[in-house]
Amino acid sequence: MRPDGDNPHPPTRWRGFSARQVAVRLFFTCWLVYGLHFATDIVREHYPAIALGDQLTFRLDEFGGLHPDLFEKEGYGWHIGNNPGVSMFAAIPYALARPVIDPIVSRVRERRQASGARPPEYDSPWPNERRFFREAWERGLDVKLGLAAAVTQFFFMAPLSALSVLLVFYVLRFMTGSDRRAFWISILYAFATPVFYRTAFLNHNLAMGIIAFAAFVAMWDPGGTGRFSPRTRFLLGGLAGGTAVLFDYSGVVLMGGLFLYGLARYWTASGWADRFRSGLWYGAGAVIPILLLLFYQWRSFGNPILPGQHWMPPVEWIELGYQGYGPPQLELLVALAFDHQFGVFAFSPFLLLALLIPWANRSAHRILPRREMWAMVLISVGMWVFFAGSNYTRLQFNTGLRYLSPIMPFLFLLAVPALVRIRALPVLLIGVLSVGWMWALAMYREVERPLGVLEPVLRTLIEGFDLPVLRTIERLGGAYGGLAASGTSPLPLFALTAALIAGIWLVRRRA
């Protein structure tokens, strides 16, 4: 039985492409661009991914002391305090790439031992980066970590974010009734929101938001296909909600939000018995990843119930609340929205349009069903309030927007009703400026300085185009065979990527 509220208007085709043809081309276009902007940041989630891919273990003894978020528990070895979900997923492409990675790492280690080489200077303005590179080099882990970061970004994060663009395109087709309009608005989601910025390296916050959004779309079924039964949709929703918790404990907001949305979605189309069975199917899906999380905590810390953060040594803000988490704070609510170093609207001013949703999505002009609109609002507000209670929110100044990454697909769709009501020329101007703004952030990623998000924009205007990986190579100087000897201009890579994208869109399959 189908609930009310589905969009009945079939979308129009664009330039003779079927929706599937547009979607496939859009997916590979975004994958290429995201991969091009790979950042060489090594984050805590990389270490479990490597350990799982190498030895199928949660212990990180090989990396002890390399990262401030690694700690040792007596009798259990070294671990990270965060949940392991994204590392488990990222371990798959890393393990598949080991036949290439392992010989390279072994060859480099043998050559260094034979030559007695000393670690080169890493010309970074940040002391912690210089210390990390020297320590990783001396342990023979620098090449391994670098290749692992590249593989997990290009074969996990980049295609995952590209998949979210495809899902947004699918939803927009039925919101706008036009494949052409859906395509161009999807481009804004892909490159004018922090999705572009956060896809540059392994990131559990964005990844769990994308997985939850995929389940939301499956439960919604905006095209009215009826391909899956409500039971299957609840099962998928529960699996995604539980996976969000496996990624991070903030995923409880996404898990709860998906469950409540599912009940509201099918409330009028079923009786109490069906609702109860639907809840059981949701729980059956959620329990699988949650049991995996409990198994991880038991194996890593000897207690399946207490989170990893319970065992980590004291850090800044840990004395407030439980391990740094307490009631929501007004100061953090404001900072999460507008702080010049990590506020969601500072990072992407375009998303301010989402605040106009009560006006833009009124009955006479509604393109987003009321139930789905309020579900997205509640999920977004729920994550915002949740992280307003986390005192570690204050530490985002050195990473840029992070904690609110999971709400990007939801917040973006809330901005669409206002966007489509604006005239074409202002929309074009908003689009160009928004993409340019986010592109600058993706190229020059440092937002820790006094200017915050303005720093990358000004550097782009003054210094020109760049890419994070080229900047890392430049800082290495003559190391690794003199990679920077002939310069590090990004223009050849831009030209190559543009040629590949042109091929994607110009080549048509014969009828």
Task: Supply the key terms.
disordered N terminus, mainly alpha, 21 helices, 511 residues
Quick summary:
The chain is an all-alpha fold and 511 residues long.
Explain how this protein is built.
- This protein is 61% helix and 2% strand.
- It is built from 21 helices and two strands.
- Strands 1-2 form a two-stranded antiparallel ribbon.
- It is globular.
Question: Secondary structure elements and their pairing?
Answer:
Layout: H1 19-36, H2 46-55, E1 70-73, E2 77-80, H3 85-115, H4 127-138, H5 142-176, H6 179-191, H7 194-198, H8 204-220, H9 230-247, H10 251-266, H11 272-301, H12 330-338, H13 344-347, H14 357-360, H15 370-387, H16 408-420, H17 424-443, H18 454-463, H19 468-476, H20 479-482, H21 491-506
Antiparallel strand pairs: 1-2
The gyration radius over C-alpha positions equals 23 Å
Unreliable runs, pLDDT <50, ≥5 residues? 1-8
Overall spatial form: globular
Largest sheet: 2 strands, antiparallel
- What is the number of helical segments per DSSP (H or I, 4+ residues)? 21
Order of helices and strands: HHEEHHHHHHHHHHHHHHHHHHH
Q: What's the average pLDDT?
A: 90
Q: Fraction of residues in helices? A: 55-70%
* Category from helices, strands and their pairing: mainly alpha
Termini separation comes to 37 Å
**Beta strand %:** under 5%
- Order of strands, main sheet, comes to 1-2
Give the total of beta strands: 2
Instruction: Give the quaternary arrangement of the chains.
Output: single chain
